[in-house]
Amino acid sequence: MNDAVSSYGRVGWSWRKSLRAGQRSAPLRSAGETFWVGLGGGGWQAFGMSMDNELQKHYALLLGIGSPWEVKTVELKLQEKKVEIELGWQWGSAAKCPECGCECSIHDSAPERTWRHLDTMQFTTLIRARTPRAECPEHGVRTMQVPWAVPQGRFTLLFERFAVEVLLACASVSQACELLGIGWDAAHEIMKRAVERGLERRQMDQLAHLGMDEKSFKRGHSYITLLTDLDQSRVLEVVEERTCEAADQLWATLTPEQKAAVEAVAVDMWEPFIQTIARQVPEADIVHDRFHVSKYLNESVDKVRRQEHKELLAEGDETLKGTRQLWLYNPQHFSQEQRDEFSGLKDQQLKVARAWAMKELFSKFWEYQEAGWARRFFKDWFGWVSRSQLKPMADVARLLKRHLENLLTYLRHHITNAVTEGLNSKIQSIKSAARGFRNFQNYRIRILFFCGKLNLYPL
Length: 459
Ligand SMILES: [Zn+2]
Known about the structure:
Number of strands: 16
Structural class: alpha+beta
Strand order of the largest sheet: 1-4-5-9-8
Bound molecules: zinc ion
Radius of gyration: 32 Å
Distance between the termini: 37 Å
Largest sheet: 5 strands, mixed
Helix content: 40-55%
Number of helices: 18
């Protein structure tokens, strides 16, 4: 056996036969777990490879390709740790036009192509073949489609299936690339095809509760907008920008029937989104996201603290130094030490303590079951806050008042974009892992691949 290349002749039928026969006939597997292949010159020779169950299954799958395709040669390149399998088309078999499927004569063969297949043990396994070109009376000379790969694919379907699994399981795409021994572009190619497949197969009935949300992109210089299905926690589509036009593009991905079935949309108090929802799904309720609301309230509390801290420092008073987080955290999550420190602060006559109390009290709003009671509560809360002379708090109260009707809808639907919090952190990690995003389209593919809950597999 040549050390670098051990090449076997024409083994197509005999390989297949030996695998099948091997299960019945002792002589063909007489050397225990030795894999036998027929040599072109006749006779048999052991192929020096351990033939455990996995390998047997693996090759059985490969051979599932079936007639009129056959294995012509198997090359084992020991030093390169490579197995190359050459497939050939049986002479005399009719070709099929890829366009219309009609049987026609073979014109010639396309130049040889190579597909990466699942590794054989740790050996990179490649399939090589020259695909016949059919001569269709209607469509002319066309290269036939091979059953083991998609047109233009550089990998077999089995390899792609495995790659999708590895990509989904890995913490990062670069880790998956390393495990699979493929490059960044190849991984992208596989993901793109997987997403296209998934979108084609996706079921989109019962989209009752949707979310529309923006995310920053490219270090916060630009934005993307996502449409999510809140009931199934999946991203439906992603577009660039956060404008009316962007949101309209998202709506355009739904059919009129799908839009008519939407009951409510969770969204931030962002005017372009509000407008497009009112126009595109007029029957649906707009529900402002309560977590966005608490973000606004927190920001206002923080403004009050900063202002007051400045005033106190001017008099040499450091009471508020290092207290920022205390006013923003949920007190239920405080450590004992924080609790002690906070209760000391709360009892002093501080402006920020009043602002904090306003923020805390507002959380009661979400607990009402009746809109009437919530409305009454809001009126009282608004009166207190707007008389408080804490400008940042009065500002946010006015913002909430302006959007009150779409805050009250929460009591009916109980939806929020934070349901997709798991998605948000996934998207965040896609963004931070993806220093190399050359464009928005790549980003979109990643988001749909990891967050679209699509059926991504080729088989
Ligand atoms: Zn045709």
